[in-house]
Design a protein that fits this description.
The chain has about 500 residues and is mostly helical. The protein has 17 helices and no strands. The radius of gyration is 22 Å and the shape is globular. The protein starts with a helix and ends in a 10-residue tail after the last helix.
Length: about 500
Amino acid sequence: MPWLVGGIDQMANQEAHVTAPEDRIPFGQKLIYGCGAFVNNTLAAGVSTLTNVLIVVLGMDPRLVGWITAIPRVLDAFTDPLMGYISDKTKSRYGRRRPYIFGGAICAGILFFALWQLPLGQSTTYYVVYFLGVSLVFFCFYTVFATPWVALGYELTPDYHERTRLMGVQNFFGSVAYLFSSYYLSFVYNKKMFDNGIEGTAVLAGIICVVTIVLGVLPAIFLREKLVDFGEEEEEKKEISEICMDFFKGFAIAIRFKPFMKLCVATFLIFNGFILISSLQYFVVVYYVFGGDNDVGSDWFGHALLVQGICGLMVVAFVTWLGTRIGKRKALLTAICVSIFGYALKWFCYIPGNEWAVLIPAPFMAFGLASLFTIAPSMVADVVDADELNTGERREGMFGSIFWWVVKLGQSVAILAGGYLLKGTGFDASLGGEQTAEALQMMRLFDAFIPCVASAIAIWAILSFSITEERAHEIRAKLESRRGIREEAPAPA
């Protein structure tokens, strides 16, 4: 890993950048911003994990489930950038982001609860129409909450390293959400508590609804935007055609900016590779390691995810520290290599009769997503500054919406492709623990090595990311010189 060695040498030979007091974000405000990450990941994990119930309990075809979960992401391709544009252009006494965060959290929580109220005994057509219809509305309000919340984080500080620390805190709290989600299936399939998985899912959805509303509104109440309206003149009212042209112009500028697109490609590959096999991992553990015993297998699947989640928290802290020492790009590359090793370990550790070995790959796999969602959002904030230097406009909402749409697109594509992969292996839920040897072998192969290949390709994109620490400091100096002022510290919560 030459980038790690070179980074350590660089760290030893030059003074570390010191964050100015006025650029620091009070820890309490970082915690509040982290509440938004907890909500964001709780909703994302709920949607992706609970689709298992559609296949296992309702008996729906995995390919069909893939389609009805992927279609709302097509809508996201329009609503995410549009919401980013609306948020960037909003002017109100409460700021550009906060009104949407507040209302979006409440509506998204209620709609998530409604999404999982699925009565037994209905036709497949009923489930498809109901789930798809509510999903489309849910994801619209999920976007109303998430896109402004993401954009808010990009403008809380202009400091290169303080951005990494902020994203480290928010990703720490976001990772805590995955500790809980690792036992979602164990909870909903608990026969002592519920008569069936549908009943358990409905109860869990209610809990997630309350958590989403209570925690989701906190960033809107207690955080303040730092770069509101600096250097902006009052705009005249525009015609619809002018607004559309302005939107598409901003969108085109964002997707043509090479450092940003390389970051999006890397994120898509790393995240998509993980999500693509997340459902396969469950089936490998349950049907290969535990011979189709869903109760015991789902518990050990939860244990593995719990270990991965706990290790992910430590990885977030480590990568945050490492990123402020050797740079964001080198820290991310190092973590990806460790995660590739972890994914490959599953081929050797997921074996029948040795359930404890299921836990061995988890600490190494944790380096993938934990590092990605600590470092990449901080890198997007640097991209926003570079774009402002080029264009004179700030587009936190636009860049944030496109970046996280790529994440959500990756999730949906992975769920859709995962359904086809599972079906293509020859898996048949009606066979229970009597799956064919060929089906089990193909599931193991996909589970272990697809994320390895995807992450390896992502390394190429990250290697060519051009906004280094030195370049980021240079950009900031030029921006502050252009504005003629140094930004004031954030208003206290």
